[in-house]
Amino acid sequence: MTMSDPIADMLTRIRNANTRKHETVDVPASKMKLAIADILVKEGYVEKYDIVDNGKFKDIRITLKYTADKSERIITGLKKISKPGLRIYANKENMPKVLGGLGTAIVSTNVGVLTDKEARQRGVGGEVLCFIW
Q: Distance between CA atoms of 63 and 41, rounded to whole angstroms?
């Protein structure tokens, strides 16, 4: 059975593992998911990610980030915005800000997957994939 929204599945796996305070979470790999994982590392929401080969398929093993004593989570919220039934697009003028700039919006543009700040700097719009804070 095929999955209708693989990005939502990735975000849900991260959210669930983060809630249970797991060290790592495995997600089936794709180019889009690798780009999102790369943004999560650059923005400091996750520690790192590795590509794990499981024979036929590859997985992305994401190492989640917590405070030093592991009492607080770094990711406090994760929300999917654009869905297969209702795509949400934003141009450069109305690019959303998450929590007044404290969070990050991940946007799929014609120059690649960018954060809302990078999209504003480059002057491009695109599909708003998710919010993370």
A: 10
- pLDDT tens, position by position, 73-102: 999 999 999 999 999 999 989 999 999 889
Give the residue among 49, 38, 60, 48 at the shortest CA–CA distance from 115: 38
Tokens 């994982």 correspond to: 37
Q: What are phi and psi of 59, to 5 degrees?
A: -120, 155
**Nearest CA to 59 among 85, 35, 33, 93?**
33
Burial 56-85 (b: 16+ CB within 10 A, else e): eeebbbbebbeeeeeeeeebeebebbbeee
Q: Report the C-alpha gap between 1 and 10 in whole angstroms.
A: 17
Model confidence pTM above 0.85: yes
Which of 92, 88, 126, 94 has the alpha carbon at shortest distance from 109? 126
